[in-house]
Amino acid sequence: MTMTLPGELASLGLKSPVLLAPMAGITDLPFRQIVAGFGAGLVVSEMVASQEMVQAKPGVRERAELGFGEAATAVQIAGREAHWMAEAARMVEANGARIIDINMGCPAKKVVNGYSGSALLRDLDHALRLIEAVVAAVRVPVTLKTRLGWDDRLHNAPELARRAEAAGIAMITIHGRTRCQFYKGHADWRAIAAVRDAVSIPVIANGDITCAASAKTARTQARASGVMIGRAIQGRPWLLSQIAAGLEGRAVPQPPRGSALAELAGRHVDAAFGFYGTALGGRVIRKHLGWYMQVGGTPAPLRREVLTAPPERLQACLRSAFDQPAVAA
Fold first, then answer.
1. 313 a known binding residue?
2. How far apart are CA 108 and CA 121, in angstroms?
3. What's the pTM value of the predicted model, to 2 decimals?
4. Who wins on pLDDT, 110 or 204?
5. pLDDT tens, 171-221?
6. What is the phi-psi region of residue 258: left when phi exceeds 0, alpha when psi lies from -120 to 50, beta otherwise?
7. Which sites are catalytic (predicted)?
8. Where are the chain's structural domains?
9. Res. 35: pLDDT tops 70
10. Alpha-carbon distance 283 to 174, whole Å?
11. 242-263: burial string, b at 16+ Cβ within 10 Å, e else
12. Residue in 106, 180, 211, 317 annotated catalytic
């Protein structure tokens, strides 16, 4: 039986309830375009530091780069000062972003020590000043990604969500862990339901969703409008389309294998080289190739050959790397 897309998501221009999470060093333009090619409700850029973007710090603006005609794309910004957040939001809107996402969930020490990301869960008044500044600065929808709270004693995501909705936030994504959990233990999808009770805007469940079965469970327990997939997509850019098919009761498409997987990896290599240049692109793409080969069941000697090959030999090495029986994806 086909599942109807919630109107609250359709109103944001989304075509599927399965979204790609922002991931530092992973969800760059080449990867987002490959994921979007398989089908995604929304793809989100790497987190962009607002002040560094406005001040044109080298390497920062590339994280917010949008492709020609790229649809259903959000650019995620982070920061601790309302002025820089608003200016960055204006810039990414002018560059064509369809949605602007505010990061208040990153648990990394570097981000938290800069009073950004999930550090803002400890000061909701300041968090709201940032939200209000961004919403006032742009015309496109503004969304928010955060966690359940700072720690087990401070589960204040429902309060943040209520205040964020009143300030104009159009959708909120909740990772089902606190900041102090980082990525340990298991995401608490049931706890996200408290956020669902607090607001009328769409709530997206995030954390430990790896397949259609876990997506169904997370969505049910959280009573969420949709799900957001992060680490599980590494080496599997087709995963969102598989999960969407499972949620909608359609036949789940088979992942590419053998020569088809080699061709996909090769296109990703070409896209990385075109975006970053050969030298930097060759370094950036290595982690993705490692994940592709892990999924494809490439033997260790061939993996080493690919990961140490010079850029001009990568395509030839890829063809042999996937020319053998693949493990299940």
1. no
2. 14
3. 0.92
4. 204
5. 999 999 988 887 888 999 999 999 999 999 999 999 999 999 999 999 999
6. left
7. 106 (proton donor)
8. 7-248, 258-321
9. yes
10. 32
11. bbbbbbbeeeeeebbbeeebbe
12. 106
| 253 labeled part of a ligand binding site | no
Q: Tokens in use for 209?
A: 């969703």
Q: Using the structure block, give the residue that is written with the tokens 């039986």.
A: 1
Task: Indicate if 106 belongs to the active site.
Answer: yes
Which residue type does 293 have? M
Judge whether 22 is annotated as a binding position: yes
- The two three-digit tokens of residue 201, written as one number: 């805007």
- Determine whether the annotation assigns residue 126 to a binding site: no
